[in-house]
């Protein structure tokens, strides 16, 4: 609830401008010549002071020019000096409007900004706009109309284009930010600000690159937690993918991993500029997340069928009216109207028929969204239909999208629809695309709420044995595990594998095969051969000893010829899986350069790369995420009853995926892995072959820093006794705690609520609940004290009821060296030491995260809290910005 640290940048109360000498225009840049006019035309109400870098006088004279924001538009050689002056006059933020600034100079500017505590947007950006505040601190074009949509773009050209498009399509903006390369205030920080901006209801992001995936995901999760976010990413890294040692590494491109990461943030990705405009239209109309069922109301079968085809292509569902709704609607429509799937009102449909159909869809629970497609007919009135459709739009409670096809005849109708705040499109496909963005946001919100722990609830793996095996391989200066070593590592995590024994001679091979039982498979065992089939290193279904003997000799000779430099350990013998109804699948792990490890799933076998069936998810996984991962692969269709074979054992696949997630979380040395094939039938799943690549892990990978999404920190869970009997659990907050947290706030006295929130609120709003319970454990932590009571229910069975009786929280400051705390304790448990335990717990977590100081503001009237802070050794002193508060701080 406190002011965001970027407020001086994006909501300044005063501005100083360094734009050169207006009397010498030759010394000004083009940005410098235009920024003054842009600020003036925008109508900014605060003071704007123009300063020259060649000014004379002392810093005391300049102190009068102190401002929140310094806007700098000067030649490159003058940028550092101007930023230094801005720091000396205590500007809290700076904006550098420039292009072509090289990395060394950008680094120098960043260093100056850090030294003076300035939040710097730029260099190499076009600035920003805040239409509601009448701030046009940009050179991207005239000030946009006010609206609820925020635009953040790493491309100046695209920023200008979208602003121009918005002015022609009645799309208003709350904020427009052009970032560009080399800016100090980056995409993650901008998203963090927009997440707390009350004027912003939805966000559109265009991005070209990232440097810190963890920070980006953290900020995007925070923003998408309460607001729809649509992302257009330019550049597909697949073309530049490096050579990989496993099938998984070769198949899974960085773009697939980016998609997986974006899904877990709750945001939606679009793939084209046209789709971005469609998304912007829908978000500007403030449509909220919904389900995937879209009803199509049309007066022409052809356009309706085009929409239905695209609905199926995008994985949406064509909504049909219930029988009751269809029967009630039919008398209000022309005789030739059909309501079976599409709501084809026929060519005779007038404005009243369209309005009746839209209202019927709005009342029907089987419909999540409505698309109205109108094609002009001879003698029809497109304007009247537009007015009828727009009349009830505000009270529908569901997204309403329109497509008035044509051009000149429907131009006025489109203006009527746009004026009503309804998204309108020129083609059915574009309209369906727009709805798809809304529906995808709804689906991704389910993924956003998943915060699995690093280890599942299955049997504990042998972590020490797994680490010893990997360290042994690395000690031999190897990175690729043999099949025997790979299967041993899988076995340490209780993944079912085929029994595999190494033979170093043909005689040993025959002896082992007879013990295992025929038929058997022979596979070459070498740390230097990535894919055995490439060197004919696999022989299957050998039915007797003679076949094993001959197969061993032929394989060794062939491999020696095709891979003469490869080290050969021998040949592994394993019994054929023998699953008559088995399906061949694969599970893989790759390590993306930015996002770290990712888990892939799809169809397996020798043609895995040719089939190219894959779905990707970021770890950690839980059962919900594992099921979604399986469902996204095409191979999931053959897991049901298929060609006479009974349904496959999906639970076995899910458990293996959870085990692989455990491996990825617990073993930062794991770089790539192929489980191929994984054979599954109605009885279970079995790993037939596996290949794993490892490498030394840097120290920074401790505490799961190698993961883009931090797991649920279950290690901080503790049980503590209560005074007078009973106990409570102290654990990190979970997304499902929202209702318990709301009950805690509602049950507080007015004084306690005022002491915590410095306001008279009686309950937390939905965005506040989401903000407090779905957190990013990397940059903040909330510990909740949960008390569970067991009491007999009406049927005599004991029922457990849990409630939150206290919360402590910290949020890391932008410098990532200090944090700000808060504390809330149920009035009924005040004075029982609960507040002390919550504060000690949150300080332990902050210390474990490497933070050096914890600070917080406490109302002067809150004597109980001040007494607690003093007992914990906090330094308590007056707060300069507000005499009603005390600043409490403690070194960790």
Describe this structure in words.
Helix 15 (382-391) packs parallel to helix 16 (411-419). Helix 5 links the parallel strand 4 and strand 5. Among the domains are: 290-448, Rossmann fold (3-Layer(aba) Sandwich), CATH 3.40.50.261; 499-576, Dna Ligase, domain 1; 714-891, Gcn5-related N-acetyltransferase (GNAT) (Aminopeptidase). It has an eight-stranded mixed β-sheet with strand order 29-30-31-32-33-34-36-35, sandwiched between helices. It has 29 helices and 36 strands. The protein is globular, with a radius of gyration of 32 Å. Helices cover 36% and strands 23% of the residues. By secondary structure, it is of the alpha/beta class.
For this entry, what is the oligomeric state of its chains? single chain
Q: What is the CATH homology-level superfamily of the domain at 714-891?
A: Gcn5-related N-acetyltransferase (GNAT)
General shape: globular
- CATH topology name of the domain at 714-891: Aminopeptidase
Report the structural category. Answer: alpha/beta
Name the helicity range: 25-40%
Radius of gyration: 32 Å
Order of strands across the biggest sheet? 29-30-31-32-33-34-36-35
Mean pLDDT: 86
* Cα distance spanning the termini: 24 Å
Q: What is the number of beta strands?
A: 36
| Tally of separate helices | 29
Which CATH class of the domain at 714-891? Alpha Beta
Q: Please describe the biggest sheet, giving its number of strands, its sense, and whether it closes into a barrel.
A: 8 strands, mixed
Residues in β-strands, percent? 15-25%
Low-pLDDT ranges? 237-244
The CATH architecture of the domain at 714-891 can be given as 3-Layer(aba) Sandwich
């Amino acid at each position: 609830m406190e002011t965001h640290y970027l407020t001086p940048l994006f909501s300044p109360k005063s501005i100083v401008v360094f734009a050169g000498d207006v009397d010498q225009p030759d010394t000004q840049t083009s940005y410098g010549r235009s920024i003054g006019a842009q600020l003036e035309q925008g109508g900014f109400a605060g003071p704007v002071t123009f300063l020259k870098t060649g000014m004379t006088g002392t810093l005391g004279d300049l102190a009068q020019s102190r401002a929140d924001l310094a806007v700098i538009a000067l030649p490159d050689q003058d940028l550092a000096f101007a930023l230094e002056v801005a720091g000396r006059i205590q500007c809290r933020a700076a904006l550098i409007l420039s292009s072509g600034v090289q990395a060394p100079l950008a680094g120098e500017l960043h260093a100056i900004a850090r030294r003076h505590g300035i939040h710097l947007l730029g260099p190499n950006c076009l600035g920003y706009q805040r239409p509601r505040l009448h701030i046009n601190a940009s050179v991207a074009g005239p000030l946009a109309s006010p609206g609820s949509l925020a635009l953040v773009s790493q491309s100046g050209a695209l920023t200008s284009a979208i602003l121009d498009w918005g002015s022609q399509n009645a799309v208003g903006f709350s904020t427009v930010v052009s970032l560009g390369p080399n800016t100090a205030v980056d995409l993650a920080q901008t998203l963090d600000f927009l997440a707390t901006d009350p004027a912003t209801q939805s966000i559109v992001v265009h991005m070209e690159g990232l440097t810190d995936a963890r920070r980006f995901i953290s900020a995007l999760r925070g923003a998408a937690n309460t607001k729809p976010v649509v992302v257009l990413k330019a550049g597909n890294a697949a073309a530049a993918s490096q050579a990989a040692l496993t099938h998984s590494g070769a198949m899974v491109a960085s773009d697939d991993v980016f998609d997986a990461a974006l899904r877990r943030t709750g945001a939606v990705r679009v793939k084209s500029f046209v789709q971005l405009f469609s998304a912007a239209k829908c978000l500007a109309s403030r449509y909220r997340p919904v389900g995937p069922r879209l009803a199509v109301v049309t007066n022409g079968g052809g356009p309706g069928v085009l929409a239905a085809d695209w609905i199926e292509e995008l994985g949406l569902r064509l909504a049909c009216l219930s029988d009751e709704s269809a029967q009630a609607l039919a008398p209000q429509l022309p005789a030739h109207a059909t309501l079976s799937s599409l709501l084809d009102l026929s060519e005779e449909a007038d404005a009243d028929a369209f309005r009746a159909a839209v209202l019927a869809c709005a009342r029907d629970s089987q419909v999540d969204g409505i698309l109205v497609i109108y094609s002009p007919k001879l003698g029809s009135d497109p304007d009247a239909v537009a007015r009828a459709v727009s009349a009830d739009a505000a009270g529908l409670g569901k997204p309403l999208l329109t497509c008035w096809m044509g051009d000149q005849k429907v131009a006025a109708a489109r203006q009527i629809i746009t004026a009503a705040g309804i998204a309108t499109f020129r083609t059915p496909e574009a309209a369906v695309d727009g709805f798809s963005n809304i529906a995808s946001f709804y689906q991704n919100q389910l993924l956003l709420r998943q915060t699995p722990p690093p280890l599942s609830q299955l049997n504990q793996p042998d972590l020490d044995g797994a680490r010893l095996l990997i360290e042994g391989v690395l000690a031999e200066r190897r990175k690729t595990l043999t099949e025997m070593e790979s299967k041993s590592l899988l076995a340490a995590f209780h993944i079912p594998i085929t029994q595999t024994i190494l033979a170093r001679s043909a005689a040993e091979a025959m002896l082992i095969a007879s013990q295992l039982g025929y038929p058997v498979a022979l596979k070459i065992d070498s740390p230097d051969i990535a894919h055995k089939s490439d060197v004919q290193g696999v022989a299957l279904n050998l039915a007797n000893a003679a076949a094993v003997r001959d197969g061993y000799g032929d394989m060794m000779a062939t491999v020696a010829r095709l891979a003469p430099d490869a080290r050969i350990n021998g040949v592994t013998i394993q019994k054929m899986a023998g699953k008559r109804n088995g399906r061949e699948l694969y599970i893989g792990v790759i390590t993306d350069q930015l996002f770290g490890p990712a888990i892939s799933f799809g169809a397996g076998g020798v043609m895995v790369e040719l089939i190219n069936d894959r779905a990707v998810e970021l770890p950690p996984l839980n059962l919900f995420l594992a099921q979604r991962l399986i469902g996204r692969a095409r191979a999931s269709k053959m897991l049901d009853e298929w060609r006479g074979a009974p349904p496959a054992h999906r639970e076995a696949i899910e458990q293996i995926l959870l085990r692989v997630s455990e491996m990825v979380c617990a073993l930062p040395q794991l770089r790539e892995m192929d489980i191929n094939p994984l054979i599954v039938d109605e009885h279970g799943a079995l790993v037939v072959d596996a290949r794993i690549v490892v490498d030394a892990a840097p120290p920074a990978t401790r505490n799961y820093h190698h993961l883009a999404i931090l797991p649920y920190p279950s290690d901080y869970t503790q049980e503590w006794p209560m005074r007078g009997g009973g106990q409570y659990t102290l654990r990190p907050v979970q997304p499902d705690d929202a209702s318990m947290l709301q009950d805690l706030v509602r049950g507080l006295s007015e004084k306690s609520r005022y002491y915590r929130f410095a306001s008279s609120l009686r309950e937390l709003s939905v965005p506040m609940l989401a903000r407090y319970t779905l957190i990013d454990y990397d940059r903040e932590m909330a510990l909740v004290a949960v008390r569970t009571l067991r009491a007999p229910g009406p049927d005599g069975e004991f029922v457990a009821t849990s409630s939150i009786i206290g919360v402590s929280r910290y949020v890391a400051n932008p410098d990532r060296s200090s944090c700000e705390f808060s504390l809330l304790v149920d009035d009924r448990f005040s004075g029982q030491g609960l507040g002390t335990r919550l504060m000690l717990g949150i300080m332990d977590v902050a210390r474990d995260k490497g933070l050096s100081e914890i600070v917080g503001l406490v109302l002067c009237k809150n004597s109980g809290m001040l007494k607690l802070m003093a007992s914990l050794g906090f330094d308590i002193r007056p707060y300069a910005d507000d005499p009603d508060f005390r600043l409490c701080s403690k070194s960790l």
